[in-house]
Amino acid sequence: MAGIYGFVAEFNPFHLGHKLFIDKIKTKYHPDVLIAVMSGNYVQRGDFAVMNKWKRAQIAVEYGVDLVIELPFAYAVEPAELFANGAIRLLNSIGIDHLVFGTEDDVDFIDLVTKINDSKIDFTQDYTQNYASNLNNQYANEGIDLVGKPNKLLGLSYAKSIVDNHYDILVDTILRKENDYSSSEIRKRLSKQNDLSVDKLVPKETSDQLNGDQLVSWDTFYKFLEYNILTSSTNELQLIYQMVEGLENKFKKDILTSKTFEEFLFNIKSKRYTRSRLKRLSIYTLLNVKDEEINEVYQHPYLRILAFNKVGQTYLNNVKKNLDFPLITKVGKAENDLMSLELKVDSLIEMTSGVQQNYGVIPFMKGANQC
To answer: Is 48 labelled as part of a ligand binding site?
Structure first.
């Protein structure tokens, strides 16, 4: 057998570069099953997905993925290392034996991680820089260039998770070229920062959804964030996940003079914190996310199925009795406790879109029978 292949995605939104990536995996590696773990309605850099998770999962299956699993909020809205740990943990539990990802440099990632671990890098925070810059400098001292290479950084994080957790997973790569499609460029066009169309960058299914929906962004929710900060005491804000080092005071102070989210980010920005770090913290504050809610997901993980085809359905039927984590294909009262954080954060998406994200929603099934 060629093997059970998995990869990590946001599909924010699903574009022709993703289609090309999936096609290359199938051409180069011929997987028996191809599984994607995909971020839900919130993404890693502290933003809202431009399309809801169900639509993105459906399009992914239409274009060649056999099974899509949701990456819960607790993993999806985290820095690279924690994002990678959560994603690989779920892919390992569903039984992949090959991980594949795109990278700017085609290197042996497992060998690279082994060398890093053996070198015992003394990572001491330089507080004149933010964490990401400090990390890049530490790796550069070991001859590892990560600057401007986000896919390589994520790949390194994936490989580190595999090595450190002793997962029996092989790593395969797809080399990314400079002219590959860019999700960030598509989102800029969608946010009307320029007047260029996205129709030539995305499949028809994505284009139809984007043209038919009101796009969700921080512009939509800034007033909600402003209200939460203004009506919370500093003691209450201190309880927000990752609210550290007196940031609650800065939030309280700078929200008073910030008319937009971009202005708020500019005002709270400092050398110690990246823009993405502060956007994630803003998401946690907007949604009132606490440490114990994140920890609950880490301690009690689950596998939420969003979409599959006949190949994915057959695979699920073969493995579901032997899974270590609960398998969820439909959310009812029994899943309230297990998925409490996801239900909470998705309620905001439901309020603004009018579209149910959890209760009663079943996975998209392409040519398959219901599980």
So the answer is: no
The per-residue pLDDT for range 299-310, each reduced to its tens digit, is 999 999 999 999
User: Is there a binding annotation on residue 277?
Assistant: no
Q: Distance of CA 206 to CAs 46, 71, 309, 362, Å?
A: 22, 20, 19, 20
The pair phi, psi for residue 200, each rounded to 5°, is -85, -5
- Topology classification of domain 4-212+297-366: Rossmann fold (3.40.50)
304 is in an annotated binding site: no
Crossing angle for the helix pair 291-299 and 340-353, to the nearest 10 degrees? 120
DSSP character string of 329-369: SSB-GGGTTTTHHHHHHHHHHHHHH---SSBT---EEES--
Query: Comparing C-alpha atoms, which of 192, 169, 199, 46 is closest to residue 10?
Result: 46
Is 20 annotated to bind a ligand? Reply is: yes
pTM for the whole thing?
0.93
Output the pLDDT for position 195: 56
Q: Which residue has the higher pLDDT, 261 or 352?
A: 261
Was 137 annotated as part of a binding site? no
How sure is the predictor about 200, in pLDDT bands with cuts at 50, 70 and 90? Answer: confident
pLDDT tens digits, one per residue of 17-66? 999 999 999 999 999 999 999 999 999 999 999 999 999 999 999 999 99
Q: Residue 141 annotated as binding?
A: no
102 marked among binding-site residues: yes
Contact by Cβ (8 Å): 99, 7: yes
14: annotated binding-site residue?
Answer: yes
Q: What is the mean pLDDT of the chain?
A: 90
Q: Which helix (H) or strand (E) holds 187?
A: helix 183-190
Domain with CATH 3.40.50.620 in the chain: 4-212+297-366
Q: Are strands 67-71 and 170-175 parallel, antiparallel or unpaired?
A: unpaired
Closest CA to 149 of 118, 120, 180: 180
